[in-house]
Amino acid sequence: MELTEKMIEQLKADLKTARTYGDLMGEDGAIKKLIKSSLEGMLDAELTEHLGYEKHSSQGKNSGNSRNGSSRKTLKNDNGEIDLTIPRDRNSTFDPVIVKKYERTLGPIEDKIISLYAKGMTTRDIQAHVHEMYGLDMSAPLVSQITDKIIDLAKQWHNRPLETVYPIVFFDAIHYKVANEGKVTSKAAYTCLAIDITGKKDLLGLWVAESEGANFWLGVMTELKNRGVNDILIACVDGLKGFPEAITTVFPQTEVQLCVIHLIRNTLKYIAGKDQKTFMRDLKTVYTAVSEEAALLALDTLENTWGKKYSLSLKIWRNNWRNASTFFKYPDEIRSMIYTTNAVEAVHRQFRKVTKSKSIFPHDDALKKMLFLAYRDIAKKWTVMPVKNWSLALSHLSIIFEKRLEHLL
Hints:
There is one protein chain. By secondary structure, the protein is α/β, with parallel strands linked by helices. Helices cover 51% and strands 17% of the residues. It has 18 helices and seven strands. It has a five-stranded mixed beta sheet, with helices on both faces. A two-stranded antiparallel sheet has the order 1-2.
């Protein structure tokens, strides 16, 4: 809607007499009056378009719908509160676009609230901040209502189409306390972090469930397949039993690398404290070996030294060797990326910074909402920062997986 001559003349008059910030932006300030007048004019124009005839026009007779007075609504924005007169129609079918029926805020104040929430501020903190900065009293339900709008964005993001091939994908989970029917349960937020063909990181999805299990991961793999992923070259996972099988069931060509750090942690559970330092020095010769053959020789030596005392710890390496040793076939540029799930754990550390103020989430959606907002902030850096040494790594991958990458290069 264009400004009328009357509105422009009134604004000029108000600006001439303005002496303070309050004269412009205060409760009866010139700018607020202009916003109010403009919005009401737009709403009236929207109703005219909805009804199909101008106000007081004879075309409205026997049209089946007509104007039916107005209602009052108070909108909150950066400059305080604006009282609006909202026109109504007799059939109650008018749904304005400029100021939606259930909207209570206007303009960037919503973006600021969402940004504060994304930084981990509690609802109470946001209320106090908005009151201090803008003089607005916002209820907790209104703050939640504003941040809940992010849920639809998160769902759209989570269901977006994906690339057909990802060279490297990391899978891991981070745990939180969530209220459920009056009880507090521990739930896992599953994360799937990928490195795409250009070397950029991309979080393919976030899932929340009560426990981390191979059956759940099988569902995740199927979902990735349905969203367009046809191939994953290398999948890096923690030590969850059955996880490699869940991956290869859906992506049979994928090479799986168990996180070496997870294996080390599980190994140390069965080593006495007095022996851990010496044992770790000997174990290091296994996972830092120059080749798989050298690593197996080092594992034999380790077993000869410690086998009688700590057979259970060594059995962990023997039983998982097939997927624990995948990284030996690659050069250092790729080894350093895939031998642990550090890449996705770094994302989890960023999540923790944002969620540390929340000891318990009221429901799953509250957890998903905050993690998605945290991801949006983290991902801003990913769009301009490819993985270190990616060009060299991709050159090696293009030779090793020539047929699976040739249509992308």
